[in-house]
Structures are given as C-alpha cells and as structure tokens.
Amino acid sequence: MVQILEANIHAVLVLNKADLDFDRPKIEEQMKHIAHQMPVFFTSIHQPQTILRLRESISEGETIVFVGSSGVGKSSLVNALCEKSVLLTSDISLSTGKGRHTSTRREMVLMEGSGVLIDTPGVREFGLTIDNPDSLAEMLEISDYTSSCRFKDCSHVNEPGCAVLEAVDSGTLDRKVYESYLKLRREAWHFSTSEHEKRKKEKSFSKLIDEVKKRKANR
C-alpha cells in the first residue's frame, strides 16, 4: 500500500473472506491510520451485499488491478464481481496451509456496465522500493509526531525528547504501526542506498570509458 501511494495510484484495500469469524471493531481500530488514506472494503463471496458495495465503487471505464497474496480469494472475488466464472479458482493447500498460485499470468476482464478488471498472480514476496524513505512517516500518519521531536535528525529509535517514542509509550501511537514504520524504513533505506551505490559505480564506469576514449583519440 505504501508503494502504491508513493506512485500516486488511487488505492483501495479489500479484506476478503469476511464471512470467517473475526473481531471487526478491533480490525477497524488497528487500521484507522490506513482508512484515512484509502477506502476499505470487507468482502465475502458468500455475502452478496459486500460484493455489490465493491462493484458500485468501480466507475464505468475505470481500470482496476487486483494485487495480493496467494490464497486470499482474488480469483473468486473477480468471478463474483463479474457475476460469472471468468477465472479458475483453487482451495488452500492442505499440506502447507498456504494459498496456491491459481493465476499464473495477468488476466484482463471487461465488467459489464462497469470498468476493466486486471487480475495478477499471487504475490509471495515483496520489497519496498520508494525514492523517499522519509515519506513513510506521512503515509503512516507519524509525521505529526516527528515534527515535535527535539532533534531534527531524530531517528525515532532511542533519542531523548523523541515525540514518536513518547506517543508509543503513552498509547497515542499504535506500537504495531510504529514497528511497521521502522521495518518499512529499513527496507526503503536499503533500496535507496543500493541505488545510490549503483549510480556511483555507473558514474565511475562512465568516467573510465571517457578516459579510455580520450587516450585512444590522442594516440
């Protein structure tokens, strides 16, 4: 979701299989920082009214893309949205307890009287690749706290006068959101550092090539 927001793509979060037993008020409380930034739908193919609400959110001519882990029911949800069987579906693997890769390629489906729907293969692994790791604070609604830290270069880990840590300790900021922020920031910094090192190597290599060309020209 962070990656999608970073790319300025209109994001919608769909929590599927809502017919299974779960504590909805607790989930909504845990996701309130996300719900402020994108619509959240609880869906189930066994609850037609939830499918209808999601379908009504898709404008005619709009292109939407389904992305998610294997086994979350994307293909079944697509079939329910289209009101006909257009994609193959499969059950959770009994041996591993994980979802099977039902979709092995991208599939585009035209929804009657609605938009264009693209289903993608299930995601097994994903790494965050954003240009500005600091934007994570804003996306996870931590920036209101970071601006109040004693030090401008505060890393929000162990510095005195850190407003983020104070918010976590007081319960104002959800600890799991804070931990997610640190984890995603590490991923983003790793990517940024890697890209920076790549650029340095590319520049060095380009200079080397230029020097070789000059030497050849002067012979």
From TrEMBL:
Pfam families (alphabetical): RsgA_GTPase
BP GO annotations: ribosome biogenesis
Annotated EngC GTPase domain residues: 1-124
GO molecular-function terms, A-Z: GTP binding; GTPase activity; metal ion binding; rRNA binding
Gene3D superfamilies, per database record: P-loop containing nucleotide triphosphate hydrolases, Probable gtpase engc, domain 3
All copies of domain CP-type G, residue ranges: 1-126
Keywords for this protein: Cytoplasm, GTP-binding, Hydrolase, Metal-binding, Nucleotide-binding, Ribosome biogenesis, RNA-binding, rRNA-binding, Zinc
SUPFAM superfamilies in alphabetical order: P-loop containing nucleoside triphosphate hydrolases (SSF52540)
InterPro entries: G_CP_dom, P-loop_NTPase, Ribosome_biogen_GTPase_RsgA, RsgA_GTPase_dom
Protein name per Swiss-Prot or TrEMBL: GTPase
Native species: Bacteroides reticulotermitis JCM 10512
